[in-house]
Amino acid sequence: MASSMVNVFGARVSYSPSPMKCVMTRSVSTTTRVNSVSIRAEAINPDIRKTEEKVVDAVVVTELSKPLTAYCRCWRSGTFPLCDGGHVKHNKATGDNVGPLLLKKPKE
Fold it and tell me: What are the Iron-binding zinc finger CDGSH type domain coordinates in residue numbering (predicted)?
């Protein structure tokens, strides 16, 4: 009589922004399925212009329909890729200084 075994994998993922890496460990079980993702607030900007309160860059683009468009660089925006100010809460929680990328239409 042949027996069969079903493997169920549970995954645990942790993220570390400096250096960029993702660590995944797997556990094998024949009876239970465990999925857990652990997310904790960590700085996104480990070493770029840390003397500034908030790192914001502006680029002048002549072919924009709006005078100003802010793009998210913290990955916390509910309107991603556009900035909704989510970096403010992130910066307070982590001591980070990440801010948006501003695309500006030149004044005519």
Answer: 54-93
Task: Tell me if the pTM is above 0.85.
Answer: no
CATH number of 66-104: 3.40.5.90
| 93-to-1, 41, 80, 98, 104 alpha-carbon distances in Å | 59, 7, 20, 12, 29
DSSP state letters, 52-70 = SSSEEEEEE-TT-SSSEEE
List b or e across 44-82, with b for residues whose CB sees 16 or more CB atoms inside 10 angstroms.
bbeeeeeeeeebbeeeeeeeeeeeebbebbbebbeeeee
For 22-75, how does the pLDDT look when each residue is reduced to its tens digit (9 = 90+)?
444 444 444 555 667 666 778 888 888 889 888 888 888 888 888 999 999 999
Catalytic residue set: 54
